[in-house]
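Re: [ENG-882] Designed sequences occasionally contain unexpected residues at chain ends

Forwarding the minimal case from QA. Structure tokens:
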């Protein structure tokens, strides 16, 4: 193994593929074993932990998702965990696998920007007081938009037995430059997950999980990780993490500084473009965010005749620019350490030219309706294993949801399996059915029908 024997099995027509395959090896002598690391992999993990200031780090070869699932499996079915509603959908997978009982905290949509840009720490602290039996708090920090919250204030209020876990999927580069937001580990979180492939030169699926010095029972976490990880981990992915770690230790600071300076310069230029607003440091006063990743460029459309979805399409078709995310009233561009000044300039010029072409005197509406409050009848795990049936949306009033439905933006699931579908929820689903918002999750994307728990 592998069957391609060092790339020979791939046609010579694809020399690059053959080249990658040379690194695609398996656990033979000298290459260590991810499930029992003692040699090369152990050394590489120790170096990774050192680089991030962790007690211990683990490779994830199946993305940040597998680290999130492992943390929930570590907690187990008797645990209660506080979770803001705007977490990535892999968290709901973790809830189903583990049986953990979620205590949801509503995510506050900023009314000025129509986005969820931070965690309401005060609400988390209030909820901790209300449920002292809670085992952990699970948060996303930074948000997809690169904004961070004051998570250290949450750490300060935790009891000795309680833990803070952070999905830091988008913050794998923060550790290498002090002017970038503080890392979860620096803020005192017990564990953090970095989706390294998102922001560092790491192959897709390459991620890592760190535990801090205050994390207990690491063996239990390792067992969960090992169970959820393939017995054939990809060596190219693991090697790319090791190479990225080495690169960041040697050149990370300089590269991040270069990118930060470009961000300051070009954000400043983009702010002068009429019809759009490029947000930066002022987000701290507008929404109380703690830190901002300079590599996420949030453009809100104020006075254009086109919406964010059209803007994204024009950028792709006419300027060869792919943005990371778009919504009715915004686009989010994601820059990397490896973009040069010419790339930032191309983005700036494209935005300036489109804004001039589609300028309008009318203010674009930014209000994004928040979903109504949810009422949980079954845990996600109980709901997952229950029988389901499909009914029309109108018929589902008073029933229990059998599927997950999220709307982007604001990126908050309005229904998770096990929650009551009441009249307010039906009205909200009807509203999103007619809007151009992006819907994620349901089997019937048109929302004419919905899966419910079959209670017969
Ligand atoms: C905030 C957040 N967490 C977790 C994930 C899952 O990461 P991965 O795709 O590496 O499994 C994503 C992916 O987009 C994400 O945005």
């Amino acid at each position: 193994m592998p069957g391609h024997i060092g790339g020979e099995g791939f046609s010579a027509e694809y020399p690059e593929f053959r080249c990658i395959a040379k690194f695609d090896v398996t656990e033979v002598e000298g290459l260590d074993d991810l499930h029992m690391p003692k040699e090369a992999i152990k050394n590489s993990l120790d170096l990774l932990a050192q680089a991030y200031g962790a007690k211990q780090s683990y490779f994830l070869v199946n993305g940040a998702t597998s680290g999130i699932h492992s943390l929930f499996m570590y907690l187990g079915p008797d645990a209660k965990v506080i979770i803001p509603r705007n977490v990535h959908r892999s968290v709901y997978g973790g809830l189903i696998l583990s049986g953990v009982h979620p205590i949801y905290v509503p995510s506050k949509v900023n009314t000025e920007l129509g986005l969820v840009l931070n965690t309401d720490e005060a609400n988390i602290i209030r909820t901790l007081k209300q449920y002292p039996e809670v085992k952990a708090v699970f948060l996303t920090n930074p948000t997809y938009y690169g904004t961070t919250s004051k998570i250290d204030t949450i750490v300060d209020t935790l009891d000795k037995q309680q833990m803070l876990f952070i999905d830091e999927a988008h913050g794998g580069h923060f550790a290498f430059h002090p002017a970038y937001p503080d890392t979860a580990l620096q803020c005192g979180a017990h564990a953090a997950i970095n989706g390294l492939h998102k922001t560092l030169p790491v192959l897709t699926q390459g991620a890592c999980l760190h535990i801090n010095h205050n994390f207990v029972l690491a063996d239990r976490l390792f067992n969960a990780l090992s169970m959820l990880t393939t017995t054939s981990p990809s060596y190219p992915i693991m090697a790319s993490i090791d190479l990225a770690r080495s690169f960041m230790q040697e050149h990370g600071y300089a590269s991040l500084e270069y990118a930060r300076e470009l961000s300051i310069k070009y954000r400043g230029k983009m702010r002068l473009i009429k019809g759009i607003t490029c947000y930066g440091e002022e987000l701290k006063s507008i929404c109380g965010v703690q830190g901002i990743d300079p590599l996420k460029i949030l453009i809100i459309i104020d006075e254009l005749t086109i919406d964010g979805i059209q803007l994204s399409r024009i950028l792709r078709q006419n300027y060869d620019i792919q943005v990371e995310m778009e919504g009715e009233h915004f686009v989010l561009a994601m820059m990397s350490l490896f973009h040069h000044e010419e790339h930032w300039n191309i983005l700036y010029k494209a935005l300036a030219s489109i804004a001039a072409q589609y300028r309008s005197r009318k203010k674009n509406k930014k209000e994004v309706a928040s979903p109504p409050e949810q009422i949980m009848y079954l845990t996600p795990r109980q709901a997952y294993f229950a029988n389901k049936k499909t009914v029309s949306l109108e018929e589902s009033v008073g029933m229990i949801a059998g599927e997950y439905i999220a709307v982007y933006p604001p990126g908050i699931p309005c229904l998770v399996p096990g929650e009551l579908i009441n009249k307010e929820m039906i009205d909200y689903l009807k509203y999103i059915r007619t809007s151009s918002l992006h819907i994620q999750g349901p089997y019937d994307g048109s929302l004419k029908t919905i899966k419910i728990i079959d209670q017969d």
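QA comment: On inspection the terminal residues look reasonable. The chain is about 35% helix and 15% strand. Proposing we downgrade this to a documentation issue.
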